[in-house]
Amino acid sequence: MEYVTNLSKEDPSIATTSKFNLEFTYPVQYYDFHVYYVAHNKTSVEESTNLRNKLLLDFPEYCSNGSILVKKLYTDDHVIGPHITHFWEADVARPEVFIEVLSWFQLNHGNLSVLIHPQTGDDLTDHTSSALWLGDKLPLIVEHLPPKDGSIPEFGVKGGDRIPVENFKSHKRRF
């Protein structure tokens, strides 16, 4: 996926360290928001693009320092992962930012479906029984999810490795 926003080069820990010493309940390390659209439907693409642009405009500080990592597909020619249609994504690692982004999506998602799921190291559970949905719940191709292995994608690292959940806190200090 193409990163629209990135971690701060000066201090990437800004994106992952709560200003209020808040933490998600273990083993949750961060959250993904998947915003779905139909790539070959002009109305759907416009609504999705407008929503992404509004997110960037409404949260300029969080987007500029990587507290909200926004990613989009390189092309509308194919879908990836367990998803049945096209999407863009926003990832959030700070609990206080998560609350703001969640309530923002509740008020602004319009006709678009949004999958909100934790990153715990169990992709199947994260994307299904632990997931939240705004708008219509869409089916997922769960066979495309990796087996439970206790690892999660590195936060904000394009093409990064999967790391053990228990290493996330020490890993984020070494960006």
Automatic annotation (TrEMBL):
<dbReference type="InterPro" id="IPR014980">
    <property type="entry name" value="DOPA_dioxygen"/>
</dbReference>
<dbReference type="InterPro" id="IPR023389">
    <property type="entry name" value="DOPA-like_sf"/>
</dbReference>
<dbReference type="Pfam" id="PF08883">
    <property type="entry name" value="DOPA_dioxygen"/>
</dbReference>
<protein>
    <recommendedName>
        <fullName>DOPA-dioxygenase</fullName>
    </recommendedName>
</protein>
